[in-house]
Fold:
Amino acid sequence: MARPSWRELGGLAAAVLAVVSLLLPWTGLSSGNPEVQAALGELPAEDVDRSVWRATFLGWFPPLLVAAFGLVVAAFGRIGTARTGGLPQLWLIAAGVATLCTVFAWIFIAWQFSGDERAILDIGGVSVDAAVGRYLGVVAIVTSLVFAVLDVRALRAETRRAAPRRGRHTR
Structure:
């Protein structure tokens, strides 16, 4: 079995980043009002700095998808039949889906709370902000997308080199 290329190693690095991002705080509550911020400080830490597992599907699905495909690409990325069978294209699709889900998760960041909870947070002047895990997850997802694009382009170059050259036929 051939050594993984730098593209497969990049996919593996994205997978590791994605897994680490799942272990860090994903969202945090904050307020510009000192009294409200003091009240938030009295709440349990897991209610203020929330993990990805308390977020919506759009929060935890993209890093898991990137982690799974990073491992698959690192393990099978140099196998010729897997490459020509569409693994780089599948990786690109998965990275694109993860990116799209992440964009929606960022837009709808407050939806991890019910409508009543969001209304109370709004009235209290509490904002739902991204935490370090979410930022690291975005880095992992973008890294996976970049390496997937590079891998698809490399496959295209490989297949062009391997294809027999067709010359002009003379009669």
